[in-house]
Amino acid sequence: MQPDEFRRIGHEVIDWIADYRERVGDLPVRSQVEPGWVRSQLAPIPEQGEGFAGLLADLDRVVVPGTTHWQHPGFYAYFPSNASLPSVLGDLLSSGLGVQGMLWSTSPACTEVEQHLMDELVGAMGLPERFTGGGVIQDTASSAALVAMLAALHRGSDKWRQSGVDGDETVYVSSQTHSSIERAARLAGLGEESVRSIGVSPATLSMDVQALTDQIQSDVDSGRRPILVCATIGTTGTGAVDPVREIAEVCARHGIWLHVDAAWAGPAALCPEQRHLFDGLEHADSFCANAHKWMLTAFDLSLFWTAHPDVLVDALTILPEYLRNSATESGAVVDYRDWQIPLGRRFRALKLWSMLRWYGLEGVRAHLRGHVELAGLLESWVEADERWELVVPRSLSLVTLAHVDGDDATRAAMDAVNAEGSAFLTHTVVNGRFAIRVAIGAEATREHHVRAMWDALRSA
Amino acid sequence: MQPDEFRRIGHEVIDWIADYRERVGDLPVRSQVEPGWVRSQLAPIPEQGEGFAGLLADLDRVVVPGTTHWQHPGFYAYFPSNASLPSVLGDLLSSGLGVQGMLWSTSPACTEVEQHLMDELVGAMGLPERFTGGGVIQDTASSAALVAMLAALHRGSDKWRQSGVDGDETVYVSSQTHSSIERAARLAGLGEESVRSIGVSPATLSMDVQALTDQIQSDVDSGRRPILVCATIGTTGTGAVDPVREIAEVCARHGIWLHVDAAWAGPAALCPEQRHLFDGLEHADSFCANAHKWMLTAFDLSLFWTAHPDVLVDALTILPEYLRNSATESGAVVDYRDWQIPLGRRFRALKLWSMLRWYGLEGVRAHLRGHVELAGLLESWVEADERWELVVPRSLSLVTLAHVDGDDATRAAMDAVNAEGSAFLTHTVVNGRFAIRVAIGAEATREHHVRAMWDALRSA
Q: What number is the ipTM of this complex?
């Protein structure tokens, strides 16, 4: 494809996306197709090139019906995955430049724009100063958790790089921590038995610090080696917030790496009125917040900071001959390949940069505050309805509710709303009780959407 | 940004990329900037949104001078990273749709288009039938190697998931294998001591199977547990090809997982005349080829197949309550989150699909064959010049050469060409000798570019 063809077809693609975004709210949120339908509609890869029109036609005919629409204003499932249009254009520029930023020298701008933004966000989010210079973009919070764990293992043992894990390492999560932490322990060779699941307060679902303290002491007494604690600010199930400051004190006593996972709630740190949720973060060893969830940035872009980039790099680096270069050897540059699982890397900072410049920090804050406000409205409506109740307190823009008649009624209402197509809700289980999660956060969601979803739930 | 604004600005962005691609050949391939220059040019994140013009201006003013141009026709460094324009548009569509395909149900099309293409490529590349149904897109070959290793560990021990690694596992590579395999062993908790680096034939740099056989036997005799052998088809240094069939026989005797890394050379399997390089692949347990290197697909998109998807999924799966859904529980669908390190995933198949439909299989073959032919020309020119010689035989489109006067002369010539700006070459070390790698593979590279680079090398 020559640049002039790209110019013409590219305009069509842009228009296709604009049209899609204009009409996405009229589509059923969840795809209605049966397993195998999409495949049944697809042609073999052609031997001869066929132009672009067929692909665009198949998008309309097959892909759109086969898609669950994460950008739909009625998407309240999981957590939002904002793919704001300026971030889409930033990502397009990244693909168009086609650079691969594994080393500083393979594209200095790819590295330095990222360093600049990650340092700027330390200030904008009120993060601890010790994270300055320690920021890097990861693909997802799962990968961020894994690299944090590897850094913790390396800090915990001089011989981890050479000899691997010992089998006496232990890792601490709460019963509400995201499954990616337990999975990271498995991938790192620790086994699931190394993971201690600490109980939570039944009222808030936040980690029980006394139970954590006791478990760590018990492990130390029996010769185990505590490596990492993961505290969460905004759990996936209900948005619970672990007491980071108290957890940090326990970690400090035992020299344990404290990773703070704020994959969803992290962007709220841009709003001074929410900073209290991040109390104690200055004692964390690493911190993760996903720009690709609630922060208007097209998937995938996870913001990760560590106070110990030297440890992280030392854990992950390897330098074969074919990657040697004078810039690296000068020590004057950062090579981000040593900060992540893959070797190669996209210029992801471009989609973050374009989003931040388009909206400005005030625009992003308005986006976050708007959803918190809508969730507050929903919360007030639930409280005013005697047939429904909040299962746990609202957390930012996440409302977790259930019908007073019990699990069957709650599930039936959720299923009815999901079947109707104008909203998509998912569930969790809280203290054994089935509950609906309403995660407000799509860019296009307005009060009338939330009102309609609530009316549908009540009448179901 | 509203759809109508996106339409207008999107057209400008498309035009910017078209202009960039039209002029990229006139820019110096390598960025000429000093460490820190890019950062020094960047403004703070604005408080108020500022539109898109400033970003585009900064691309011209800061990013382009700060970029090493991987799409430049004079890019012969590392391996190519083809970001063909139809794949750029496919990736744009992925961002525009903004779906997150962690589960089948979160976007059936994201999963099923990928399944379709991966199965189709089994046929198109002449891959073993046992890979059908076992294909998945990974971000990079490094991640592919890591998931292969985790699957191998799980297959090798019933208790790996629960108890982690034992410390007696061993992994086998050659001295020429990509560093990502040793790194994967470190990340998986095995430690570098678990990795046996097997010697190679000095003439071809392919793995010495007798040495491999002896090392495995010696390890087994001393109570170690061989887990994985990585064979490479097209090593990073020189494009060497390991004898997969013979290595597979050794693996079969000991029940060892055979991972075949063809990150760069893999797409050549689309050409029947190159299939001999893949002899024995039907005995491999997993196989990796990067579409984002030499196969016209914008980074990142690594093609990975395993003959044992059940083992892979069992190694990586974890199912918390908030991800439960009826489609998953029916068993009728694939949830690709269980096939990879991250949880979330982009609709990467779109950029592969758009590329394959635009060029057709014949177009991709023509791309590959054109580079092999250019490398053959360069090979003939080197052979005809008594001051230069091939250090190892040409491998596909990779030519590894050195000046007969020794390392200083070779390095000086490379540095002179790189400083001049119209070509970018990197190096390797072969049997202790400094050698220039000429990896031909940019989409725009033509004979006159290779000729000019060769003339520049000779006159340097």
A: 0.96
